[in-house]
Automatic annotation (TrEMBL), chain A:
GO terms for biological process: cell wall organization; glucuronoxylan biosynthetic process; plant-type secondary cell wall biogenesis. Belongs to the glycosyltransferase 43 family. Its main location: Golgi. Involved in the synthesis of glucuronoxylan hemicellulose in secondary cell walls. Residues 439-518 are annotated as: Disordered. The chain crosses the membrane at residues 29-50. InterPro entries: Glyco_trans_43 (IPR005027), Nucleotide-diphossugar_trans (IPR029044). One of its GO terms (molecular function) is xylosyltransferase activity. GO terms for cellular component: Golgi membrane. It comes from Brassica campestris. This is Glycosyltransferases. Residues 482-496 have a biased composition (Basic residues). Its EC number is 2.4.-.-.
TrEMBL record, chain B:
The keyword Transmembrane applies. This is Exostosin GT47 domain-containing protein. Keywords: Glycosyltransferase, Golgi apparatus, Signal, Signal-anchor, Transferase, Transmembrane. GO terms for molecular function: 1,4-beta-D-xylan synthase activity; glucuronoxylan glucuronosyltransferase activity. InterPro entries: Exostosin (IPR004263), Exostosin_GT47 (IPR040911). It is found in: Golgi apparatus membrane. GO terms for cellular component: Golgi membrane.
């Protein structure tokens, strides 16, 4: 190697500096020359970033036909060389065959001046992705099998949580890629609140009033809901709506795959529903979950901890029965009144787990299978429990969602207290009067109202204002607390809201007796 | 003669019906576009009856014993040579009478000498090939009749019959002199390259069909990845200074697009590689040490538009498959502007490419399924061979004429194997 020879010569020179023979002069000249060359090479290597002695060998030794060198290559520890796109030092060596523009050997790594994403191009790419996905959906998804209208039946009534639940269902239906007809049946007659919520949906809504008021117990509520659904089905029959009827109870949660799956139904289908039966008491629920887990481990059953209601199939995917909700763990502990703190249990078979072809409900018996009862002759007073009463032969039900293995929607019942108040339309107008400033707000402090010396408690609601009663000692506590809390409190004592603070409970407990109804 | 052709047709029909045992279920119910024109219809040609192939009976040290020594050869990307022999042995195009054969096949597994890592070493391959040719030249008269012009060999290694993995050395060696007149079936293809002979048939590298089929996902899964690539950008083991591997193209891809959210590129080996490809619109197929890559096969099977970054590459079955309509070709010098190039393709063109890719005959042509199915890569090879028939008059040598130089090539190659 040249360098080792160089090194050796350097050492020789060092060893015998005073060796001044005649040929040593020429030798020393050679040595100096090599030394200078060596230093020069070192400097060049430092600049280039690699030891280029191999390149020198390449040029001198190897056949010139096969190598072609571009500007400096990559070194992992140095920042990558930013090479502009004008190729430099391109020596056009030729391969043995006719002119090929591909050359073998080391090439530079081309990096453009600013190698970062360009937002315009990112947007263009997203538009391409969107177009491709639309095409995919057209080919595989919605349009492929012929999209049928989804007829959603929702029984509802005006209460505190109506806006919460109904908005959820509404948004799900707005996202459905098919045509939707939404039949909203309202207990207590058509009201403005409901109309204002469903009017924002953008889908076709049939808003029907039902003359009964919604009762206060879950059992009775279930019965009234059945009647309301039957009322809606009668609307389907009269209007001769064509499509797939599904029951979208307003507190349920639907997945988008559910709507894709129900397009496959021929006459009468069933899906698996996940039951979120819970009690308001978190501890109790944890305990019951643990207990259930213990029971499961004892039985070594393969049930998941989420109870599921739906069709049961055998190994050949034929319907053999139903999974129903096991009410035993909740015996005696289930909620009776709508605002009870206990677990809310579903029926044996919930309506929401069934879908039907709307032609079943039509009058003329055209191509209606004979195992379907005539809907017009159904007597509601006989007690219709589940949609299976619409059939003569319940074994003809089609299990959907890979034979019930997919849980496509979830059943949940959550309600506020029966006497809870909420501003109509959830708009607070006019604004509340009393304001209490909290400490450490980013806005300048408003000096707190001087407490009235007469009583401990401030006087209450005049007119339509809903005001929270804050006893004096609570006020001080509030000032001490560091949370920025809006002092306008709802008087809902609903346990389902976020973790109640101690102040709230104290407010609620102490003002329980003093709260006036509006 | 007529009876025999009828019998052959009868056998062929049975073979076709019975070959649905392990049917490869491709994308169902997607509207596909037929590759129209003379090129595309060629994919569905049936070679049975159009040519006859005679398979030499070589001693098992050239094929079976090598395979027994290392069964990994059955699954690596050069396994085409093994499956080709198996296919031909049981195919209706095989004839036991060499006098009526149009093509002669020499089953020698030159790519089955694997390192512990699984990479094939080509150092003994020239000698093995030479020894096999000497054997057939001395035992049968058909080699000398044409000096190999109607023989074909499967050489799927990196640079084909140049038998080396380093490009400079491969170019230096050139194609084995004894194979100068034979037809080569190889994976390597690059225009104006020493190692690509005029008249070679380019085939795709072997990709395991069952493994890919088991990773199919429903077609309605939306394609949400714009550009996808998994693999090395720098080969620090063999090319520590960079610039050699892939002619710097892969490194350029990394340096330019490593922070681009549209490009899902990395060196990981995810278990969901096949599934991810089915969720991508474009799949990069850049060159590595050699221009071809199994990514092309995977992209075609999974419906991802291949973006081919390899200058002057010759793609498999280029005379039967219109690659320009199906894939996107990017010059290596344009790699820094890859995002501009890809986003400026009109969406209609992209959708058309996807429809072409969805064509089942397209996907079938890229595979080597066992047992063979109509339209697969084996049949495309036979179609290619059939298209070269009838042989030119010049193929047959006058008696005593010798064109091949049996002593050409490096001295080390002349040693017996």
């Amino acid at each position: 190697m040249k360098l080792s020879a160089l090194h050796q010569s350097y050492l020789n020179r060092r060893r015998s500096p005073l060796d001044s023979s005649v040929d040593a002069s020429s030798k020393s000249f050679l040595a100096v020359f090599w030394l200078v060359l060596h230093c020069l090479c070192c400097l060049i290597s430092l600049l280039l970033g690699f030891r280029f002695s191999r390149l020198v060998f390449f040029f001198l030794v190897s056949t010139p036909s096969s190598s072609n060198l571009y500007s400096p290559p990559f070194r992992p520890d140095l920042p990558p060389p930013r090479i502009d796109l004008t190729p430099s030092n391109a020596t056009t060596a030729e391969a043995k065959t006719s002119s090929s523009r591909v050359v073998v050997g080391r090439h530079g790594i081309l990096i453009r001046p600013w190698p970062h994403p360009d937002p315009v191009e990112v947007m263009k790419a997203h538009r391409i992705i969107e177009r491709v996905q639309r095409e995919q959906k057209a080919v595989f998804g919605a349009g492929a099998k012929g999209s049928r209208t989804v007829i959603a039946v929702t029984p509802t009534y005006v209460r505190t949580f109506q806006a919460l639940h109904l908005n959820g269902v509404m948004h799900s239906l707005m996202l459905v890629p098919y045509d939707v007809v939404w039949i909203v049946v309202e207990a207590g007659g058509v009201s403005n609140e409901t109309a204002s919520i469903v009017g924002k949906s953008g889908v076709r809504v049939i808003h029907v009033g039902f003359d009964q008021r919604m009762p206060n117990t879950w059992e009775d509520r279930g019965k009234v809901e059945v009647l309301m659904r039957l009322r809606a089905l009668r609307v389907v029959k009269e209007e001769k709506l064509d499509g797939v009827v599904m029951f979208a109870d307003d507190s349920n949660m639907h997945s988008m795959e559910f709507f894709d799956e129900i397009q496959n139904v021929k006459w009468f289908g069933a899906v698996s529903v996940g039951i979120l039966a819970h009690s308001g008491n978190a501890e109790e629920m944890v305990m019951s979950m643990d207990k259930r887990r213990e029971m499961e481990e004892e039985e070594s059953s393969s049930l998941s901890s989420l109870p599921v209601q739906g069709p049961a199939c055998n190994a050949t995917d034929k319907l053999i029965g139903w999974h129903v909700f096991n009410t035993l763990p909740y015996a005696g502990k289930s909620a009776v009144y709508i605002d009870d703190v206990a677990a809310v249990l579903p029926q044996k078979l919930e309506w929401c787990g069934f879908v039907l072809n709307s032609r079943i409900l039509w009058d003329e018996a055209e191509s209606k299978p004979e195992w379907v009862k005539e809907f017009g002759l159904l007597n509601e007073n006989e007690g219709v429990e589940s949609p299976l009463s619409l059939l003569n032969d319940p074994s003809m039900v089609e299990p959907l969602g890979s034979c019930g293995r997919q849980v496509l929607l979830w059943w949940l019942r959550v309600e506020a207290r029966a006497d809870s108040k909420f501003p109509p339309g959830w708009v607070i107008d006019p604004p509340l009067e009393i304001t209490v400033a909290a400490k450490r707000t980013p806005w300048p402090d408003v000096p707190p109202e001087p407490p009235t010396k007469k009583k401990d408690q401030m006087s209450l609601s005049q007119g339509n204002n809903n005001v929270v009663v804050i006893p004096k000692h609570q006020q001080q506590q509030q000032q001490r607390s560091s949370k920025v809390r809006k002092p306008k409190r709802r008087s809902k004592r609903n346990k389902h809201e976020a973790k109640p603070t101690d102040t709230a409970t104290q407010v609620s407990s102490s003002t329980k007796h003093h709260q006036e109804r509006n | 003669m007529k009876l025999r052709s009828w019998v052959l047709i009868f056998i062929a029909c049975n073979l076709l019906t019975f070959s649905t045992i392990s049917a490869f279920r491709l994308s169902r119910s997607q509207p596909t576009e037929r590759i129209s024109g003379s090129a595309g219809d060629v994919l569905d040609d049936n070679p049975v009856g159009r040519l006859k192939v005679f398979v030499y009976e070589l001693p098992s040290k050239y094929n079976k014993k090598i395979l027994q020594k290392d069964p990994r050869c059955l699954t690596h990307m050069f396994a085409a040579e093994i499956y080709m022999q198996r296919f031909l042995l049981s195919s209706p195009v095989r004839t036991l009478n060499p006098e009526e054969a149009d093509w002669f096949y020499v089953p020698v597994y030159t790519t089955c000498d694997l390192t512990p890592n699984g990479l094939p070493l080509p150092f003994k391959s020239p000698r093995m090939m030479r020894s096999a040719i000497q054997l057939i030249a001395s035992n049968w008269p058909y080699w000398n009749r044409t000096e190999g012009a109607d023989h074909f060999f499967v050489v799927p290694h990196d640079f084909g019959a140049c038998f080396h993995y380093q490009e400079e050395k491969a170019i230096g060696r050139g194609i084995l002199p004894l194979l100068q007149r034979a037809t080569l079936v190889q994976t390597f293809g690059q225009r104006n390259h020493v190692c690509l002979k005029q008249g070679s048939i380019t085939v795709p590298p072997y990709a395991p069909p069952q493994k890919m089929q088991s990773h199919l996902i429903p077609g309605k899964t939306p394609r949400s990845i714009f550009v996808y690539f998994r693999g090395l950008f720098y080969d620090v083991g063999n090319d520590p200074e960079g610039g050699y591997y892939a002619r710097g193209a892969r490194a350029a891809v990394w340096e330019n697009f490593k922070d681009n959210p549209l490009f899902d590129i990395s060196t990981e080996h995810p278990t969901t590689y096949y599934e991810d490809m089915q969720r991508a619109i474009f799949c990069l197929c850049p060159l590595g040490w050699a221009p071809w890559s199994p990514r092309l096969v995977e992209a075609v099977i999974f419906g991802c538009i291949p973006v081919i970054i390899a200058d002057d590459i010759v793609l498999p079955f280029a005379d039967a498959i219109p690659w320009e309509d199906i894939g996107v070709f990017v010059d290596e010098k344009d790699v820094p502007y890859l995002d501009t190039i890809l986003t400026s393709i009109p969406p209609e063109v992209i959708l058309r490419k996807q429809r072409l890719l969805a064509n089942p005959s397209m996907k079938q042509a890229m595979l080597f399924p066992q047992p063979a199915q109509p339209g697969d890569a084996f049949h495309q090879v036979l179609n290619g061979l059939a298209r070269k028939l009838p042989h030119d008059r010049s193929v047959y040598l006058r008696p005593g004429e010798k064109l091949l130089n049996w002593t050409a090539g490096p001295v080390a190659d002349l040693k017996p194997w």
